[in-house]
Every structure is written in C-alpha cells, then in structure tokens.
Protein 1
Amino acid sequence: MRKELDNKIQNSDYPTALELINQNREHYNPEEKTNLDVLKVKILTELGLYDEAFKLSQNLINSKLTPEQQLKIHIERELIFEINNDEKSSKIEIDKAEQLIKNYPDLKPKNYTHFLIRKSSYYRVNGHREIAFEIANEAKKYAMSVNDESNLPDVELILGLGNRNNPEKRLAHFQRALYLYKRLHHNEAINSMYNNISFLYFSKQDYKVADVYIDSAIANSKNSRVLNYRADIFQLKSEIMEKQNQPDSALHYYKLASGLYNQFNNQQRDLKVKELGIQFNFQKEKTEKEQLQKNIAGTRKLNITLFISVFVLACLLWLILKNKKKIEVQKQEISDNNLALKNNLEQKQFLVQELNHRVKNNLAVILSLIDFQKDQADSSEYKNRFEDLHQRIKTIMIAHELYSYSVNHNDNALIEVESYTNRIFETHQNSSQRVIDYKIDIENSTLKVDKALPFGLILNELITNSIKHAKTESLILDLKLNLIDDKIELSYSDNGTNFDFENKKDSLGLLIIEGMVKQLKGNYTRDKANYKITFPND
C-alpha cells in the first residue's frame, strides 16, 4: 500500500491517499500505524484541513516517535503555523527540526533539502527575503550534491519566488522548475508552474504569451483531480480573456472556475466531516487504552493491598462494592453526558466555521460582482457609485476578517480599533488615484463587534468624502480617538481648502454617517471638513 500511497501523493491525489489510509490503518501494527499517521498529517495539510492536521500532530508529538518521524512532524507543524501567520510557533518548530538534524546526522541526506525549503519559506513569509534567498541557494547546492531530484524543482520554485524584483530571473527559475517537474512526470506541479508563468506574463501585461502558457495548463489539466488547481487555471484564463476584450470567453471560463471552486469546497466539507468522525474514534481509542493501563496499574496496587490487608478489606468489602457500583453509574452518566455535549459542540463549531467561511466568501463574490458591474458601466458617475459601494462592503469585510464568530466566543468579543482603522485607510490608499497620507493617534482601545462596524462605516464615509471634495495637492488625513471616562471621542479632519459636502443634505454618505452615529447612540458636530463624534463605550 505504501507504494500506492507514494504514487497518489506524487500526483497530488490527496483525497484518494487519505481514503486509503483511513480504510487500511486498522490492518497494521502500532509502529506501521504511526508511520501512516505521520504521513496523514502531511496529506491533511496539503488538503487545507489545518485544524485536523494540527490535532493529529499534537497527538503524535506526545507519543513515542522515531527521530525521523519527529522531524517530519515538526516540519509539517511549521507549515501549519506559517499558513496561520503564527511566526513565533513556526520558529519553534523550525528550531526543533534543525536540532534533530544536528543530533541525528543520518537524517540529513533524505530530509535536509526539504528542511531548507521550509526554513527559507519561513524567512520569506516573515519579511526576511535576503536570508530566505541565501537558504534557498543553500538548498539548491545541497540537493544537487546528493542528487535530490524530488525536491530540486521545489527549490527552483522558491528561488523564483525570492526574485521578486527581477522578473527575468524569476521567469528563468520558474521555467527550470517546470522542466524538472516534467522530468518527474509530476502532472499537478506542471499545471501549477504553467499557471505561475502565465501569471508572471499577465502581470507584465504580455497577455498573448500569458494565454499560451495558460492554454498549456488547461490542456495538461484534463486528467487533473486537484479541483482548486484547475479552478485557479480557469480563473486566470478568464482574467486574460477579459484583458483581451473577449467578455464572452472570460465569462465562460469564470463559470468553469466557479463550478470547480464549489466542487472543491464541497469536497473539503465532506473530508472535514469524515475526519472529525475518524479523529473522534481515534481519541476514543486512545482514551480507552489509557484507561485500560490505569486500570491495570490500579489492579496491581489493589492486589498488593489485598494481600497485606485481607482482614481489613473483608470488613469493608460490602461498603466498597456499594460505593463502587454508585461511582460506576455516576461515571457512566458523566461519560454519556460528556459525549453528547462533545458531539453537539463539534456540530455547532463546524456549522459556525462553515458560516464564517461562507460569509467571507460571499462578501468576496459581492466585491467581484461590483467590480464587474463597474467595468461595464458607461457613466463615470455610476462607476464612482460602484466604487463607493465597493469601499463600504470592503469595510464590512475587513471587520469580518478581524473577528470570526465561534461557539467559544460571545457577543461581547472585541476588535482592536487601531488595526481596523489602519486597514480601512490602507484600502483607500491602494484604490485611490490621489496621493494620500494619514496620521492616526489612537489610545490602546478596543470596540465591541456591534460598535466596530458602525465606527468603520463612519470612517469610510469620512475618508471617501475627503478624497472627493478636499481641494489640495497632497491630501493629509488626521484621525484621533480618545477614551474620556466611559465615552469615546473621535476627531477627524483633512487639509483641504474647500468643502462642499455640507450643501448636500440628501447625500448618501451624510445619511450613512448620521445613521451610524445614531446606531452608536452618540452625537456629532461638524465644522466644514472637521468632524467630532462622541459615543458611549459600553
């Protein structure tokens, strides 16, 4: 089965590989089961089931593992933490993996290139690009010295990613990676590289060459079983067609991509549900074994005690049996209640997570639809209205990104105001054609969810108004937020020399500001472009 598993992993057919492990795991001895579980952590991570991969790795890390198994688990855990932006935990896992390689030199030939790839990725993701590039070159040198053909194309890929400011070198590394993947007959990696090279030309606005590469990816992906890879290919094809003024073709490929994304999300959901059941049974089995070991140890102690204290125990036997029976009944009731509560909690947690995921996806789809509609509008006035609508929904989306509802949180959970405010300002900076600088003076403060969203919408309207109406060559926005007793005071101004917002009493922006201030149970004053808004912090 291991050969079949390696073949499925080589071709990125992770759902089938996961099913093979789950169906056959019970037929192996404990040592072989552990090997399969270590491999399963990698498969779950590749499938994007990070919570499940972390739970399984946590169970494994607390059990007896060989040095090589420990190394593989630490490398996969680094990737999980890296994806979840946990820099501190990622560094801990990298350091543990590096220490294992130092302590066990025999692990180095098979694993050192892969370790260097993960180490380079850690530094690149966390902003240390020069260090990451040096480590990637070290990985390439080592892979060539030990003829590590399986990891060498991955090294070329990360070297390409490291050449962020040199498109020609990035393209050369990408093409080298594509060549090496073809030698390995790694179909899914070939698709991914075609897509990466096409996107590189797309970003250079060379749409014809981008189209050639993406067509190669489409032709090569006919037998692909990795749905999200195929969806990414069709999504990029749609964008290329749009840039080449072929809206019908763009819409066709967009629909193909959307269908594949939906299939992928359904597949992820089904796998997550199955994995929850499997991990529950795994935990149950582990608990039963631990309980059995405790019972064995307890029995031994009891035998010794019985041998020494036969006479005393004989007198107390009736009382012990009676209490034991009562305790067993109580334990069974507690166990049944805990099991029911656990199942209920897992179901609710899954539903809440699914809801969070769908809300964020739906907001992203709405933003995409608004962008499509804006591009099709003939009137500049309607384009501006669509842009304003885009910014308002983007403000709502940022709030959802900073706070995720969960059964482990309540309605009084807080959002950090400074992070939320910076994100809103940065969104306007990135989308506006004007040069915008801003100054923020915010005391360490947080807002409840039901106040953060109205606050964000008010700030969005103020910034939008300044961009539109402030007459100045270089726009500077100023925001101060002070906590005075039990109230929050917001002061906002810009450096414009003219202001005509006040003459438009029916302005939608003004209506939104007044409505949101009312929702916050606050009040505001305005002197031209200077706003002062006060609302309770309860």
Protein 2
Amino acid sequence: MGHNINAPQRLFVKMVASITLLVVVVMMLLSFILYLNFEKIHSRQVSEANLNVLSQISYSANYMYENAKNFAVSLYVDEKNVPLMYSETENYDLVSSQIKYLNTLVEQSPFVHSVYVYNNKLDKYYSTWKSPINDAKSFFDQDIVNVVSEMKFSPETKFAPILRKIPVSLAGQTESNPSMDVISFILYDLPATDNKVQGAIIININVDYLNQMIHSLSKKQISTISDIVILNQQGQIVTTTSPDYRLIDWTSQPYTNIRQDQSGYLLQKIHDEKFMLSYATSDILNWRFISIVPYKLIVKDINTMKRITFLVCAILLAVGLSLAFILSRYLYAPVEVLFGKMKSLEKVNRETVYSKKMDVLRNLLSNRENDIAYLQRMFSSYHIPLEPGKSHQLFILSIDRFNEFTRNYNNGDQKSLKFAIGNAASEIASRKFTNVFVDTEVDSIVILFEVGSDTYEYNRIQQYAIIRDIQQWTADNLKLSLSAAISYVALDLSDISRSYSEAQTILKYRMFFGWGCILTPDSLAHINADYFEPPVKLEVKLEEHLLYGRLEEAKEVLGEIHSYIGEYAYDTAMSYLFSFAYTLFKKNNELRPNGSSRKLDIDYYSFTKELGSLETMDQIFIKFTELFAMICEVNNQSKNSRKTVIINSIVKIMESNYTDKSLSHEGIANTLNLSRDYIGKLFRESYEMSIADYINEIRLNKAKELLEQDSRTVSDIMEAIGWENKNYFYKMFKLKFGVTTSEYRLHKVAEAAEKVDD
C-alpha cells in the first residue's frame, strides 16, 4: 500500500527533475546564444548612441547653414550694400561707413568670421577682415577671387558651401599659422548677358566654430573616447577632432557605404587597428558626419561579462541539479493547483497571441516590403479577418491633448483606454467595412479596413460618418477627444505602409485644423507649394510692439503671422516658428550697455522643446503670447532715463552740426565719450535706422526746404547742408521724395503760381 502511495510521488519527482534539468539546459543554451549575439547588440547600441550625437551635430551644421544663408540674404537685400556691389564710382566715406557697419554685424554673429562684398564694375573686394578695400589683383584672398571669376550660375551651386583656406596675414607679414580653414557661402547676381558675377556677398565661417560645436555635443556620447570627422559632398574633410584621419582617402572602396547610405555603421581597419565607424548624413548640406571609436574599447567590458556569464551559468547548473534532486522527493501538488496553473498558462497564452497579433499588424504598417503569401499565413494564424490581396485603406485616430493624457493616467490605464478606443472603433467601423484595429503604442490607434466596390464619394461619406460616431462615443464614455486622418487607397496590403506614412503626414495638419478634425488628402489642397518668404514686415512690426511693451498689438500681429504660415506646409511652418522663436530670444536676451540685464526667465531650448510638443496653432499662439508678456515686462523694466538722455544728445549733435562735412558716427561717439557700437545700437533701437542714415535724413529734409525757399543751385545747397557726393545726393533725394531736385523745384514753383492766380 505504501509502495502504491509513493509511486506517484516518485513519478512527480522524476517529472520535476526532468523539467528542472530541461530549464537549466535551455538557460545554458540561451546564455550561449546571448554570448554569441551580445557583442553585436552592444555594438549596435554604441552606434545608435553615437548616431544620436551625429544627428545633433548634423542639425547644428544645418542650423549654421540656414543662419549663414539668412545672414547673407539680409546683407544682399540691404540697400546700403547696393553701392558696394554695383556702384561705378567709389565714395570712400560711404564705403568706410558701410564696412564699419558690416564689422558690427560680424561681431554680433557667433559663427561668421568675415564678410566680403564684390563689385565687378570696380573690380574691387570690400572686406571686414584684414585690408578693407582691395583691388581684385591685390586682394590678399586670391582663392576667392579665382572662385568668383570662374563661377557659373546653376541651382545646385548657388549658395553651396565651399571648403577652402584663407590667409591670416597680409603680404610682408609673418605669423605662426599662414592660413585658416573656412567654409564660404556666396550669394551673387548674374545678368542674362555675359553670365559673369556682377556683385556678390561672401560669408566666411571659421571651421573652428564647427570644432567647438562638435566638442560640446560629443560630451553626450556613451563612448567617451571617440573622434569625429565631417566630410563634404566631394569626400573632402571639413573638420576632424584628430589630424590622423586627414591622411585617409575617404573616397576609396572600404568607405563605399558611407558615401551612399544615409546612416549606419561599419567595422573597418584603420592603420591595422579595428574601429567602429558610425555615420549620418545632412539632407541640406549633403555632408557626412562620422564617429570613430576603437573597437577594443567596445568589447573590453563585454569580454569580462562573457566570462562572468559562463561562470554564473555553471554555478546555476550545479545548484539547480542539486536542488532539483533534493526538493523533488518532497514536492507534490494537488490536482486543483495543477488546474490553476493550467488556467494561468491559458491566460498568458491569450495575451501572447494578442501581443503577437499586434506585432504582425504593426510590422505591416512599418514595413514597405510586405509579401502577400506571408501575410496570408500570418492572418490565418492569428485570425485576422482581412484578405491581403484586396484593396485596403486606413484611418488614424490620434488622442488629442496627449501630454495631458499621459500626465493623468499611468501606463496601465493608458493601455486600457487605448484598447477600449480601438475595440469600440473596430465595432463601429464593422457596420460598413471588414476591419481590424492596431495599437501603435504611441498616441494613436489605426483602423485598417477593406475597401468595397462602392464609389469613392460614397465610401468617403461612410468613413466620415463612422469617424464621427467613434469620436462621439469616445467623448461620451471616456471623456477624450480624437482627431482623425484618412489615407489613400492601397491596391493590396503590400503597399499599406505607404498609405500609413501618408496618413501620418496628413495628421500633422491637425495643427492648423484643430482638435477633433477629420483630415483627408483633399484637406491639403490649399497648401502653398511656392518658396516660403518669411513675413519680414510683420516681424519688424512685432519687434517694435514688443520693444515698447505693446502686448495687445503684438498679439494681433502674431495672429497675422499665424494666418500667413497656415498657407504653407507643416514642416515649413514649424521650421519658421523655431527660427522666429530663436530671433526673439536672441534679440531679447542681450545685456544692455549700461549694465542692466534684460534676460528672460526661460531659455530657448526649453521653449522650443515645449513648442515642438504642441498640437494646434491655438496652443502655439498661447505659448508665444506668454513669451511676449515676459518680453514686454522685461523691456518695460529696462527703460531708463540714461538711454533717453544719450539718444537726445545724439540727435541734438546731429541737428546742430549737420552742415559739418566731417560729422560722422565716430565723431559723435568721441564727443559723448562713449563706444561707437554702443551709441549705434541704442540709436537703432530707438529710431530703427543707423546714425549715418539719420544724418542723411536731416540733410535731405533741409535740402528740400532750401529748394522751396530760394533759387540757389544744387551745388550751393549741397555745400550748405554738408553733402559731398553729388551723384549720391541725387540718388538719395529721389529715393526719399520720389522726384528729382529739378522736378521738385518745378512742382513748388507751379504750386506758388496757382496760389497767385487764385
């Protein structure tokens, strides 16, 4: 009897021992597999970390390029530079004044090393670096002379970055470094006749600026011992953190992937040592950004971990076998416990099937190379009620105010709510379409459905009705708002990922249409595809309102700006908003010359990070309005009597001494015993023009009065107002009053005659 009782116990012990041994063997096998793959996984992790830093470096390089372009365009369209580029005669005072002004702009720019202005008619170069006025033949930077003389117009080369060297010393001088690496950008004007450059603005950026940027961003790398190399489109080194890599031919066969792929990594021997090369590409500059890490540093800790893993597994194997032998003799589980475990396993299996089903559907949406036969097998295995060979369509349901949603609910509640939305949406959609819902594990749910034989218009009406019902159900039962985007039709499921990608792009335009919208490809028909021109006039008006603390007027102008950018593509609008925010922060986070701080309480990076997470223009409007309120408050606090006194003194000096031909910005600064840059900045902030322009304004207005009062010649009037250059006087008079001096005088004589007749 006792033998019969112990028989099932021995059987159970054998079963437990066998299972334990099997588990230990499987664990050892898995450990061995991990041992084989861990090195590859860790390499990928290191590469991804380095790619993240390279992406930031690429973004900063693109940002530098866009700012250089904007800087050049602002100089190109500045009418004060027109005489420098196109004048046939040279006015030294005017040239000297403008070069000083350009010097001021260069000093204020963190990345611009120098600016050249080229005049074909005079064959001259005006420079903020070294000698300011130069003939082309004697210009110290002959490299740029050759570039400009050989330049031919093409859309691909206009404002393309040019990697070159410029001398750091003039002829007859010696310095330790005879040249420096720069990146030059040329904005030029070509006539339709001889196709030669007539005038150009040349911006030089010191490569050291890129080195500083790389040093700053490289601190974030996981691999602390890493070098960075930047290559241009031709495979030339723009800059590198180690001179050793300048000796490598980056256009050779081993680096083919770097020249062709957008991003990735490869293992390559350099100087007989193995390295990991992670690389990324700039879409704008078409530069390659390469991170180089010695491979022995990557695998150093891995090898130690491998040895420890084998040791631990061996110990676990011995301990597991011992415990299984000892405990198996005393373990016996009742049948009820066995059934309980079976139920638990069944639940886990259901959850696993659901998880795998979602994985198949998510892979379907993200993979552009889906095989119909494979999809049919997977759909059959997981009971997905779609036929891969038929036409399909989808719509994305995105949870509005998603940041608020993640703050209010924990991860478990979020998953439950999204499951509820997907389940209800699928059931509502099943009234018309065979469908399945996909939890994308982000802020949206996708309803994937088969398209019937009905007309496009009828299907679209049905889709709108279904989405409205889903939105209403979600609002009533879950107190959540949904926005939706409807995709194009895919002829079969092998192309559904393209439809999903296009629907994601369409959904971005929720920013313009607001929460609860339903977007289709037709919703984007109004988008302006022309080149985006920033609303400069509105920006100037807005800056004036902010400078004088007029918050309500600034908000009205912001509304006009939002209306303007709402006609352009989402990426264009967001890019402009980030650039617009940067301009505001730059102009309002400077220190006043008198020492009083006018810095804002928030920084640009925090502001733009939050700006990028906003979903609608209304939210963006509120965010900018809050920033405007802070700027107005700071500007109102920074106003002081000293600034007013200085400005009034400058105006008084100009109005009292305008007849003096030597009256200049420099002379006024010396009279007041203040820095020329300081008074120039104060005056421009108050009058929105330079001191030299204001002097010209006074003289031109006085000339107009003299033309009305007596019959003196223009030469006598110019002498009376302190003006020297006759041609420039005629040009500026017509530019300001719209007529020549002779026409103005005749007009006044005619007016006087009419009054006598009356």
Protein 3
Amino acid sequence: MKTVHYTRILLWTPIILIGYFISAQIGFKIAFLNSQVSPVWPPEGVGLSSLLLLGPVAIPGIYLGATLANFYNNPHFQTAFIIGIGNTLSSYVNYRIIKRVTEKTDPLYSTKDLIYFLSIGTFPGSFISAVLGVTSLWYWDFLSSELYFNVFFTWFSGEMLGFLIVAPLLYVWFYPKSKLNLDLSKQLELFLWIVIVYISGSIAFSDEWPLLFVPIPFVIVTSIRFRQFGATLSTVVLSYTAVTLTIEGKGVFARRDASGLSINDSLIFLDAFLFCISGIAYFLVTATRERERAQETSLKSLQVLNELKEKANEELEQKVLERTAVIEEQRIEIEKQLDMAKRIQESLFPQKEIVPNGVEILFKNIPMMKVGGDLYDIVWRHDKQELGVFICDVSGHGIPAALLSALVKTSLEKWKEDPKDLKENLESIRNQIIPNLREHFVTASLLHLHTDSGALTFARAGHFPLFIIRKSGALVSLKPMGRIITPIFDILAEEEKFQMEKGDLIVLLTDGLTEARDPASLQMFGEDKLLNLVRDLRNQPLKEIRDEVFQSVIHLSGGIQAIQDDLTLGLIRYTGV
C-alpha cells in the first residue's frame, strides 16, 4: 500500500511541478508593484485542483513548483522558500475546508457545495499566502513599508481569483470521470461561444462604449449549453480579458487618482464583477446538474417499476398483499408512536395555568403533523413581579423538528433561573443546541416584563419582531438585531426596551400563521392581515382573539388537514397592577 502511495508521489510530483511553474510564468507576466506580485495567480488554481483530484500526494509537487517558480523569478532562496510554504499552505487549507464541509471534491457538484466553496473555500488560504509572501518580501527589503498593504491586497485578490476561476476549470476538465463527449459540430459551437465571450468581453472593457453587460448573456448561454465545461471555460476567458484590459487602464473598473491608475481600487470592483459573473455561471451549472440527477433518478425508478409490472404474477400479487399487511401493521405502530410522541411534546409546554399579576396571557399551538417544531415557555417570578416568555420555531416538520424542540427545552434551565439577561440566555441556548443542529436552524425570541412597572425588554434570534398593539390601535414593532441560531454564525443579539401602558396587547407568533396559503390562489394570509385582525379585536377577550385568528388561518388553508406548517400564537395584555 505504501509502495503504491510513494509511486503516485513520484509520478505526479514532476507533472504538477511543471504545470505550477508554467502557470506561475503566466501570472508573473501581468505582475505589477513588485515582480512577484500578480493580480491573478493561476498556480493556486493548479494547486487546489491537484489536491481535489489527487489528494495530499500532490503536496510535494505544489511546494517544489511554487518554490522553483518564485526563485526563478527572483533568485533569493529565503523568500522563495517561505513563499513556497505560503502557496502550498493556501491550497492545502482550502482543500481541507472544502473536504470537511462538503464531503466531496467537486465544487460544482451541488448548489450547497458551491456556496461553501465561494464563501469559505477560498478566503482562508488566500489570506495565509498573502501574509507569508508579502511579509517575506518586506523583511528582506524587496518591498517598502509604504507599499506593504497595497501589495498585500493585490496578492490576496490574485490568490482569490486563482481559486475562484482557475481551480474549477482545471478540476472540471481533468476530472477522469467527467467526460465532454462532443461531436465536431458541438466542438465548433463551443469554440464559437468562447470566441463570442472573448469579443464581447473586449468590447465591455474598452473605453469606447459603456457596454459592461454585453458578455453576461453569452456566459449564461455557454454555461447552460455545455454545463460545467462551458461555465468554467467562459469565465476564465472573460476573467483574462477583464484583468488584462483593466490593468492597461481600460474599461469601467479602471479607477484613477491623483497619481494615475489605481490598480488596487480597480481590482476591488473588478473582483466583485468577476465573482458575480462566475457565481451566476456556476449556480446555473449546479442547479442544472441537480435537476438532471433528479430526472435520472426518476427515470431509473420508472424503469424499475416497469420491469416489476412486466414480471407481475399471482405469486407477486400474493407477496404484495402480504407486504401491504405488514405495511399496515407498521403504519398502525407508527401512529401509536406518533401519539406517544405527541403526548411527550405536549408535556414540553407549560402544564399549569400561569396567572401573573398585571397581565393576561394566552398561548395556543397546533402542529402541522401530530408533532412539530414550535415551542413556547413561560416563567413567572411572583417575588420580583417578573414575567419571562420564550418562543421558538425549529426548521422542518414532524419528528426531527420535535426532537430538536425537545433539545431546546432542555437548554432553557439557565433562562428559567434568571430570565432577565436576554442576550446571555440566547447565547446559552445556542451553545447547548448547536452540536445537534447540523442542517437545521432555530429562530427564537425572549421577552422580559416587569408587571408592576410595565418595563419591557425584548431580544430575538432571527425570529419575528415583537408586535405591540396599543390600546388606541397604534402598532409598535420592536426589531432588535439578532441572527438565527445556526452552527456557523453567532447570534449577535441586541436588546430593545419599551414602556408598556395599560391596555397594550403583545402579539407573539411563528411563521406558520403568516405563511398559510389559499390552495387555489396561493395567496398568503400575511403579517398585515393577521395584525389588522388582532387590532380590530384588541378589546375582546384573549380567547376570542385567539380563536378568530386560528379560524381565519385554517379556513384560508382549506381546513386543519391542509395546513402546511406549525401554528403558534401568543397574546399578552398588560392590565397593570
């Protein structure tokens, strides 16, 4: 096994070294500010694609190619040695991130994988390479301190473009299982579209006409016609044209200041443009590939079904009947388990009626299935005249969402002990549940009310604003900042305060109420309609308001069996102590 491993290293190292060296010379041709700083660094595309195609066996070839290319361009061993390390680390770090978050090597396999590639699969490695490379040039006096950050930005953006543009091209065209089988006419058509992309790019980046939009439809058509092959090739051609002409001071992105052409400022806008264009092309490809895979799966399923029909006989019919009986037994058992799960989930909601001083409070939850992902809880501390309310909505439906809502319930202990610090409690909830979220997310809100004074504090994590309908009928919305609870981003919640007055009505809800749809017209119930309904009924008993809201939503949906999401509504009327 080790012999095979070493054989692969010996085989691929010279190939990767040569490819890296050649691509480096291309990058050096358009270098500026410093002979080793290029606005586009194609070798990073070579390095990342080699790792994606071959794995870690490509590391020696990448390092040797990077060190040799930089030494050849600037015969100084120390800088070439460190820059080679930076170039190798940048490709390897991005490779490990892509492998970790996507569990695949093809950045254009699916829309989800593409989002990961564009967001976190290029930035870290580019930053590492820029820090090591620019610092080494500065340390050995190849770069003045005044130009450090200009060169750093150029180096960083060049690495990013190498990863974004060149790596997908090389991966797609050299991946052994991805074959472009085209007859001569199709090959000529692809060549024609690439020529058109080049010509339209040259026109778009000329100084004669403001026609920046011209290449976009041609890139789109090429991507749709030839999938990942057309998308990667057309974006590389357009990027090359755009970069070379912009560096020459042509086109709308060529920014000038008092000293003349500002390359760094130009690249800021150019990089954004190229990112958008390549993103559009890549997203078209991933969406098309996902649809084709779904169609292939459906076709295979249909073929299997036809084969089963052709082989049908009495024995098969008997087996079908037997299997149907088993399925019915399983269905009955699942129904029993769902009933038990429903009883368990109902126990997560407050079991005793809570009657705080100074407020009337009423909640109701109807899950889409027997169990759901909505949850609310209430804390009343009589000694301090404090009311705490929690409401959340777990993404998804059914048992998975119900299990996650149970997990959320267990994370509320700190909040129940001290419901006053809303931001800290939201972070505590997130820290306890994120190991089990994976692809799910949670929106949540926390409310704290001093019932004796009417002082209200509200915080949220991506949930609805807090709606307050004043006794006069005026609507107040509290919208403090706070992101949804996911494993990726912090909540960054803020608190917003409000002074309640006697007769004010608080409305808490989940999106199942506002997003309920008419099956015929697909018109949503909507936030405005719900709030107007509550406002018109604000002086009625809370039970009548609640019943009227649920009756209206269920009627619009076509009945209780037709609702498409969990429904939760909370009403709190401040009556004063």
